[in-house]
Amino acid sequence: MRVVVNAAISADGKLSTRERRQVDISGPADFERVDELRAESDAVMVGVGTVVADDPSLTIDGEERRERRREAGRSEQPARVVADSRIRTPSDAAVLDDTAESHLLVSETAPTDFVQQMEEEGATVITAGENRVDLPAALEQLESRGVDQLLVEGGGEIIYSLFESDLVDRLSVFVGPVVIGGRDAPTLADGDGFVDEFPALRLAEVRRIDDGVLLVYEVPDE
Ligand SMILES: NC(=O)c1ccc[n+]([C@@H]2O[C@H](COP(=O)([O-])OP(=O)(O)OC[C@H]3O[C@@H](n4cnc5c(N)ncnc54)[C@H](OP(=O)(O)O)[C@@H]3O)[C@@H](O)[C@H]2O)c1
After folding, report:
1. 75 near 52, Cβ under 8 Å?
2. Mean pLDDT along residues 14-28
3. Which domain, by its residues, includes 188?
4. Does position 148 have pLDDT exceeding 80, yes or no?
5. Does 134 sit in the ligand 1 pocket, CB within 6 Å?
6. 20 to 30 A Cα–Cα from 155, which one of 16, 24, 184, 220?
7. What separation in Å is there between the alpha carbon of 84 and the centre of ligand 1?
């Protein structure tokens, strides 16, 4: 499986405000770029923190892109995936609506009645890990369900964990023309932070988009 991480950060490296409120970082051309990335992917994943904060739908907007997928014999929309150990995803979350398939990655501590409720909402529940989602095992299960390219759209906790488990193949970051600030505001990679060994990246592309810069990195195999 190829794992592509994409996020938009402020010029000072933040994903959102200290209150975890979404900020318009990208412009229209960057939205188109992300829509195209979704169209190329089999599934789009976020952590439950992003679902709770932003309630994203994670679907392709452009009609032509959906049409292209249909013509290629693919589903019109990529599947949505939420890493959600104990099931905090609200039952009326946009990622659970019927525009696309939904997968919830949960841990063994997820309450069975919540699992049942999510299945009733039409979501597929994948269990991996004791207390928290075991990402390598969960992604393996997604791959066995036909996910060859997984696009991860944040937030900072899940992105850190993916780097920690050495699962990221490509990272694209749009750096927008705004300063958000705040020592407690989420950044691109939060978690506990690396201490002495840091994932190395290879810069593959730099492009000006709207009033910002797109940085694309490949993550070389160790
Ligand atoms: N600018 C952007 O491109 C962008 C994109 C996305 C999000 N955001 C912003 O980012 C913020 C949300 O980010 P966030 O870091 O709080 O949340 P997040 O990364 O979306 O979700 C984190 C949650 O995922 C769950 N999780 C399950 N398995 C995990 C694992 N193995 N490792 C890490 N987490 C795991 C954890 O909750 P459980 O323990 O309950 O499972 C964890 O708290 C929001 O403010 C949103 O607006 C910005």
Report:
1. no
2. 96
3. 2-218
4. yes
5. no
6. 220
7. 9
